[in-house]
Write a structure and sequence with these properties.
It is elongated and about 60 Å long. It has nine helices and no strands. It has 198 residues and is mainly α. Helix 5 runs antiparallel to helix 7 and helix 7 crosses helix 8. The model has no long low-confidence stretch (mean pLDDT 88).
């Protein structure tokens, strides 16, 4: 087994954790399985990370950062319609390029929901995964146009986020890129019709 510098080893273990969580779920993401996927000795995993929880947190942080970067080209100054269309397009490109990571993030979200204390709301966890950025861009687009949408920015944001949760599962199950792309296009069309006054 070749020697890898510590930072490169950490990166390879995080990559392996994404693959294992996506394919085996969080419960099946044992440190042994992750180390095997990374082609690393089990000791390397324990050397690079304090514990499995730290590794899982890093997977979530990586996913949140990458997802947010997917929206870098969305320009709210172009107005509400363009922002809706560009946001849906950016989200779909992200899903296609990062399906394994997105499945791992969904799995982490489900784990968080299951672990929540009675009565605890964990809905805000969506904020780190683009919801706050999506809402901010839509708010800026509305300000740029100076005309309120027919439905609230909150409703538009939730519609996009919730529809993509379903689309991720559909794409993972079918791998039918054309059908899912069509669903993304229909989502954008529906939201434009719902959101634009008149």
């Amino acid at each position: 087994m070749a020697y890898l510098p510590a930072e490169e080893r950490r990166r390879s273990i995080v990559d392996a954790a994404v693959v294992v969580i996506a394919s085996h779920g969080l419960a099946g993401a044992t440190t042994r399985r992750i180390a095997e996927q990374a082609g690393a000795p089990l000791g390397a995993l324990h050397y690079c990370f304090r514990n499995k929880a730290e590794l899982i947190d890093i997977v979530a942080e990586r996913g949140a950062t990458m997802l947010r970067e997917a929206f870098d080209d969305v320009d709210p100054g172009r107005g509400l319609e363009a922002t809706i269309r560009d946001s849906v397009s950016a989200y779909w490109r992200w899903v296609q390029a990062n399906l394994g990571l997105q499945l791992a993030l969904l799995e982490l979200g489900m784990w968080r929901i299951r672990q929540a204390a009675e009565g605890e709301s964990v809905y805000s966890m969506y904020d780190a995964f683009g919801t706050d950025l999506l809402k901010r861009n839509l708010d800026l687009a509305v300000k740029a146009e100076e005309t309120p949408p027919a439905i609230t920015v909150e409703e538009i944001t939730r519609f996009i986020t919730h529809r993509f949760d379903g689309m991720i599962l559909e794409y993972a199950a079918s791998h039918d890129r054309d059908a899912c792309r069509r669903q993304a296009d229909l989502l954008a069309e529906a939201l434009v019709l719902l959101a634009l006054p008149g």
